[in-house]
Amino acid sequence: MAVTMAQALNTALHDAMEADDRVVVYGEDVGMLGGVFRITDKLQERFGATRCFDTPLAESGIVGTAIGMAMYGYRPVVEMQFDGFTYPAFEQITSHLAKMRNRSRGTVTLPVVVRIPCGGGIGAVEHHSESPESYFTSTAGLRIVAPGVPGDAYALLRRAIESADPVVFLEPKRRYWAKEDLDLPIETAPIGRALVRRPGRTATLVTYGSMVRTCLEAAEAAQQEGWDLEVVDLRTLVPLDTDTVVDSVARTGRALVVHEAQVFAGFGAEVAARVGERAFYHLEAPVLRVGAYDIPYPPAKLEHYHLPDVDRVLDAVEQSLEY
Amino acid sequence: MTAGNGTVQWLHDRYADMRRIRRFEDITYTLFRRGTLDGTAHMAAGQEAVAVGARAALGADDYVFSTYRCHHHVIAAGAPMDRCFAELLQRRTGLCGGKGGSMHLTSVEHGVMGSYAIVGSQLPIACGAAWSAHIRGTGGVAVAFFGDGATNIGAFHEALNLAAVWRLPAVFVCENNLYAEFTAIATSINVEHPAYDRAPAYGMPAAIVDGNDVEAVHEAVATAVGRARDGDGPTLLEAKTYRRYGHSRIDPADYRPDEEEETWFARDPLTVTRRRLDELGVEASRVDETDERVGREVDEALETAMQAPEPEVGDAFADVYAEGGAGWRS
Ligand SMILES: Cc1ncc(C[n+]2csc(CCOP(=O)(O)OP(=O)(O)O)c2C)c(N)n1
Ligand SMILES: [Mg+2]
Asked: What residues of A are in contact with residue B96 (Cβ under 8 Å)?
């Protein structure tokens, strides 16, 4: 059955709420409307207004209350309406959600999931198109999950909700309507495991989130050039499955990290450094990074210049091969 | 009058609780002066009546959320003082295994669900705890303490609105000690009472209470807790009080006018309660005995803490994640 990522996420929330009555889902316009992207569609109807509800416009309040609920056995899944609206809650996420467990010598465990529809590509300008992952990956205590395909959106969200640790769950909003043939429920590899989405011999594209699809398309197009690209989908940024990446690079000898976020001090820098540290003698070329420019998110008319696409990926592959 | 309050013994016990905190704070200050303690500490001396009066109105199912100025709340909750000292001394036996320090004292078993050093953060968190008590029907109440300065940060306003609109069983207690660090609160708000005057905007009942009178605090908190337990929603209390020391250990509080200090120090909560005990016919010698007994307890707690082992490097990597360690990141 063709399932969109939005449907997969909605079903994951539904199934998680059915499986465990400690799961509560809330945020701005999440209850009655079902979320501005309809990810929480019909959950209030099905589970009632105690399990799925609307909040005042107060992101620090939303994440703060989730921390308090989680202290007492609930498993809150909160929605940040858009990436940029997460920043008012940044303090709660980085200073408390991430750190209470450490600070309380493990007595306070906070199984909270913060869902963030993130990234651009939908003509939605700044505050509505951000890639905030490296703000969170540099904060110990959080798990960062970034699915790129509907099956993973379902399975990883289920695992995230079951996780004892707080999870920042990054949903590539431009892929909400992308389809995959699958039957739900589905199990995929656990949090912390990367997957080779497409095997190849010429070079490794390491990617996650919205760029998984771009990289797969690039790999298809690359066949015309006679290049056989391997695509590694990280799926989770924390914990990072360095082994799968290094194994792949050991086979292909070339690595490119592709993400939607800006290149400068982006997550790709961490991946590149790890590959350099662990696969140095396998490398035929420096690890290259393909991502957005180091500018505030541009107006809608310019976003296709800003975001990496198939051509930018292939140009980088060529650069790697010519090295 | 609520249970226990009004009896002479009750008041004498509260006096002992406050004396215990005062002794703890005086010793803490000395340890810093001597360089025995690293980092910083925010002494709560002078504000004991708020913590002790409030605590006496709470039960085992209630939760307390505090700030970096937290020693009084944690001790009032009954957390062992040796483990409080050990935390300040960064010992393994500390309440937080030495990882939290003075500003983060936490004791889940005593209902102290964290002390938060980012001003205002604990208020929304307390709302979540109150929500959970409400939905689970435990009858529990979440009490969040904060300073006058905290009434100017967004989280305060988000939390008050959330609590009011969801009718949460929460009590918000502002310890108005007139200063936010070195800034007089009067210079940073356009109303007279930083907490009380804001309550109408949230449709929340509020009261001003003498924060140096343990009986008055107890009564006000008991009323608010009763309202919360009855399903009538949150209350905002503003306790007027004053700190004996500066903002933190390095601050001599030179910015405070002499007359202001004199007026407030004359109304020190221990002095106020001693006078009250005297009026109630308790002999001064009995109160002196309490001072000595409690003093010994605190001194012994310090001795125990000083013997406790220091943390090991591996401790820094423990408890960062519930599943898997943190070592792989490094
Ligand atoms: C968000 C934030 N801003 C600034 C600080 C630095 N700071 C620590 S305490 C304090 C004053 C707070 O005053 P108040 O709320 O009145 O509490 P008090 O210290 O008097 O108990 C400030 C500015 C902080 N910890 N958190
Ligand atoms: Mg103050």
From this structure: 103-105
Query: What is the value of ipTM here, to two decimals?
Result: 0.93
B193-252: per-residue pLDDT in tens? 999 999 999 999 999 999 999 999 999 999 999 999 999 999 999 999 999 999 998 899
A35-61 residue pLDDT tens? 999 999 999 999 999 999 999 999 999
Of A55, A95, A105, the CB nearest to B99: A105
Q: Evaluate if residue B46 carries a pLDDT over 60.
A: yes
Q: Which domains does chain A have, with CATH numbers?
A: 2-181 (3.40.50.970), 195-321 (3.40.50.920)
Pairing label, strands A229-233, A195-198 = antiparallel
Instruction: Give Cβ neighbours of residue B259 (< 8 Å, ≥ 6 apart).
Output: none
Q: Is B324 at the interface with chain A, CB within 8 A?
A: yes
The answer, for B119 touching chain A at a CB cutoff of 8 Å, is no
What's the whole-model pTM score? 0.95
A69, A108, A165: residue with CB nearest B108: A108
- The reply to whether A128 belongs to the active site is yes
B131 touching chain A per CB within 8 A:
yes
Instruction: Quote the CA–CA distance of B246 and A98 in Å, as a whole number.
Output: 31
For residue A140, the model assigns a pLDDT of 96
Q: Is B216 exposed, middle or buried (0-12, 13-18, 19+ CB in 10 A)?
A: middle
B158–A67 CB contact, under 8 Å: no
What confidence tier does B4 reach under pLDDT thresholds 50, 70, 90?
low
Cα(A207)–Cα(B132) distance, rounded to whole angstroms?
39
The token pair that represents A180 in the structure block:
């995959």
Q: Look at residues B18, B69, B122 and name the one whose alpha carbon lies nearest to residue B251.
A: B69
